[in-house]
């Protein structure tokens, strides 16, 4: 179990888990009319997961695929997932097309949805500001969350710092407070096949920055537990990384739960459950 923290990192075996239950598209083939620079494929300075399958550069072969991060909606808040598609210089168009296409069946079963309609595209990117048509009306209760989906998805690219909708003021991630749950899981993704040891990553704003993880098998039995500290917590959001291992005798469906242990009564709170497929582990 590994993690980073404001003070000395803490990790280890949790022992018995609390007894209380947890709280409850096809690839784009046409060129972008306003293509963004190919450096959009480079890893984002804000920690976005845009990753070509091979380094791009002078004399190097064009990468075959690119992985982009999409921010869907679950229970009125944003959660991330990823898509790997054929590489394109028009990564902003690819990301919005995938965002509008919506979640996979496994993601839908896990409660993810999208509010973005099809056909929304970036018209230009100038000085770090991506310009799009308005996606929300004044009386649209879901408009703010729809905008947040777009902003969080597009600002993974190093060429985009803010997004302007229509003639409005440019907005960044900080302009949408409260759209993230206390715990965000960036890996593993919903439906992923995972093996041991498993690295669980994400961000969290939890008490004393302590993030707990447990893995459940198909029968709901606990096969692994661990914890670590995020790089910030108790009023600020920090990144965490926890590694856990398990022993299973067959491949099966399972669940990775990331949660906070309540300082008041020791129950699991702010639980994020990610359905996965567990590969046999030694």
TrEMBL record:
<feature type="compositionally biased region" description="Pro residues">
    <location>
        <begin position="24"/>
        <end position="36"/>
    </location>
</feature>
<dbReference type="Pfam" id="PF10646">
    <property type="entry name" value="Germane"/>
</dbReference>
<dbReference type="Pfam" id="PF10648">
    <property type="entry name" value="Gmad2"/>
</dbReference>
<protein>
    <submittedName>
        <fullName>Spore gernimation protein</fullName>
    </submittedName>
</protein>
<dbReference type="InterPro" id="IPR019606">
    <property type="entry name" value="GerMN"/>
</dbReference>
<feature type="domain" description="GerMN">
    <location>
        <begin position="92"/>
        <end position="175"/>
    </location>
</feature>
<dbReference type="InterPro" id="IPR018911">
    <property type="entry name" value="Gmad2_Ig-like_dom"/>
</dbReference>
<feature type="region of interest" description="Disordered">
    <location>
        <begin position="1"/>
        <end position="62"/>
    </location>
</feature>
